[in-house]
Design brief:
Order of helices and strands: EEEEEEEEEEEEEEEEEEEEEHHEEHE
Number of strands: 24
Strand order of the largest sheet: 1-5-18-7-16-20-21-23-22
Structural class: mainly beta
Number of helices: 3
Distance between the termini: 33 Å
Bound molecules: calcium ion
Strand content: 35-45%
Shape: globular
Length: 300
């Protein structure tokens, strides 16, 4: 099996990146990933002023997927996420939802023990997820790995965990996939700007849907699809997600806009992914009883 070490990574998604590995659809691959602060914080005593911010949010890759071409959809099966024995969480003045308040920069080491993340005297079941995951964006743009958008990126969506299937829009030959920024556990919102940032090993398998296009990333879980949208403005992110969901319902059911729009209040749930990244992210959740993946993709 191919294994890509964590040293082979990028800080921006771009068609100009050179692939570090090539895989065929169906082939298994392991990506080793750094934690989001580049492994720089190993102790709670480390002065955070010394952090090298040019080394944060590295994504391992890019991986060239054979047969993926512009206009296709890349399918990513997240088969397993193995965590390192400990992660770290940070608070930094100026960052996060309460960044305007007066407080000190602090780091806390969070150990992973028997399936739990240990935060002081409190244990939370781990729910490993991939924070940053994506492909090269359309055009000549280089999008920093800290930013979420249509190509994926720093979506910080708690649903992108073991057993999930992610669909990403392919804009260049080979897709140029990369991933990193794993969290041991993160709740919707990611309020303080970080989560349990942790090194990990990802077991992944790719497939390609030819000639069908996802406008925004889509996650598939056991019982639903989530359309992941993002914008600097949270209301706009919600509006984009609602628009995509209503269009998918129209395609699925053959209903008019008015009917699908009405139904969206009954059958579509909107949830927050995170409200702390350069673009805020939400998801429109639609049960599999209402739409199929085919209804969520369009012909290229
Ligand atoms: Ca993140």
């Amino acid at each position: 099996m191919k294994i890509v070490p964590k040293e082979k990574g990028i800080y921006a998604f771009s068609k100009f990146n050179k692939p570090v590995e090539t895989v065929k659809p169906g082939e298994l691959i392991v990506l080793e990933t750094e934690d989001a602060v580049g492994g720089q914080v190993k102790s709670e005593d480390m002065p955070l002023e010394n952090l090298d911010w040019s080394r944060v949010n590295k994504a391992t890759g890019p991986i060239y997927i054979e047969g993926a071409e512009k206009g296709d959809t890349l399918v990513v099966d997240i088969l397993d996420i193995q965590l390192a024995p400990q992660g770290v969480i940070l608070v930094i003045p100026g960052a996060g939802v309460l960044g305007d308040l007066k407080f000190n920069p602090r780091a806390k080491i969070v150990k992973i023990e028997n399936g739990f993340a240990v935060f002081k005297d409190t244990r939370l079941p781990i729910k490993p997820m991939i924070g940053t995951i994506g492909v090269a964006p359309e055009g000549d743009e280089e999008i920093p790995t800290a930013v979420p958008y249509k190509h994926g990126g720093n979506m910080d969506c708690a649903e992108i965990g073991k057993g999930a299937r992610l669909y990403l829009p392919v804009s260049v030959d080979g897709a140029l996939f990369a991933a990193g920024d794993v969290h041991a556990v993160q709740e919707d919102g990611e309020l303080c700007v970080a989560s349990v940032e942790i090194e990990a090993k990802l077991l992944l398998r790719f497939d390609v849907i030819k000639g069908r296009h996802a406008e925004w990333p889509i996650v598939e879980t056991d019982d639903h699809f989530s359309i992941l949208t993002s914008d600097e403005d949270l209301d706009k992110a919600v509006r984009i997600a609602a628009d995509e969901a209503v269009k998918a319902i129209m395609r699925a059911k053959g209903w008019s806009f008015e009917e699908a729009y009405m139904f969206s209040s009954l059958g579509v749930k909107v949830a927050i992914n995170q409200v702390v990244d350069p673009k805020k992210g939400v998801r429109a959740i639609i049960p599999k009883s209402i739409v199929t993946i085919n209804d969520l993709l369009t012909s290229s």
